[in-house]
Write a structure and sequence with these properties.
mainly alpha; 80% helix
């Protein structure tokens, strides 16, 4: 493999790790770059390979958040379990069928998310909800199962969807949503990654250097998010959602 390809992939992976640590959506950076630079590789191989840097960056970002942000461990462990199982199933299905039919639906959903987040200035700043423990666990299982499956089957934007779910359904603010979403996303990465490793879908030559760069980006992004707080994360979240819309628009309307 040409050296310049690995260099470009590593640069994309660093930026992806940085963005993902703040607001999710790192896959929107490294996934299209990998598809462009490695056009002859099967999509399932690329998706499997990109799970390695995604796992590394999410792990390092999670460690940074754990030092500073309070976690609901009972809820998180339950969500992590269901997220991992759902992602394993989603990745298995991805190896059998195409996921293109989901893109128009996601496009419509994200337009609504972008408009709502932009217009509601206090969204994710302070969202107290009086939820019983049982209801919170039920919602957590629902969130982690649906988005975990999405992560395994489609992938890009998973962190953003988790943040949105933590805010709108569980009443977390942006900082706590981003921190908790990282751990749930980590579990879905493990589930998906397990399936891809079993099926031999990892291109280790590019996965390992990308993992180092993604980890560095995740470390820097998490530190910045903790320092800057909710409004900073909200702005990044909007940027990521708009970026997702642009990417989906290309796939739906222009890609042959």
């Amino acid at each position: 493999m040409e050296t310049y390809i690995i260099i470009f992939l590593c640069m994309a992976s660093f930026l992806a790790g940085f963005i993902d640590a703040i607001a999710g959506g790192g896959g929107l950076i490294q996934t299209p770059v990998a598809l462009i630079l490695l056009p002859h590789q099967p999509v399932s191989n690329l998706m499997g390979t990109l799970k390695i840097p995604g796992f590394t960056g999410t792990s390092i970002a999670s460690l940074q958040y754990l030092k500073k942000v309070e976690m609901n461990w009972k809820l998180l462990l339950i969500m992590a379990f269901f997220s991992g199982l759902a992602a394993f199933l989603g990745s298995h299905i991805l190896t059998l069928v195409s996921n293109d039919f989901m893109k128009p639906l996601l496009f419509i959903v994200l337009i609504g998310v972008a408009i709502y987040t932009f217009l509601k200035k206090d969204f994710g700043t302070h969202q107290p909800k009086e939820l019983s423990e049982n209801k919170m666990i039920f919602l957590g299982i629902f969130i982690s199962t649906v988005i975990g499956f999405y992560d395994g089957f489609i992938g890009p934007g998973t962190g953003s969807f988790l943040i949105l779910a933590f805010i709108s359904l569980l009443g977390f603010d942006f900082l706590h949503s981003s921190a908790n979403a990282k751990l749930v996303n980590l579990a879905s990465n493990v589930g998906s990654l397990t399936l891809f490793i079993i099926k031999g879908k990892i291109i280790w030559l590019i996965a390992l250097p990308m993992a180092v760069c993604n980890g560095l980006g995740g470390w820097l992004g998490a530190k910045l998010a903790i320092k800057k707080g909710n409004q900073f994360i909200r702005i990044f979240f909007l940027i990521v959602v708009i970026g997702t819309l642009i990417r989906l628009s290309y796939d739906i309307f222009f890609k042959s």
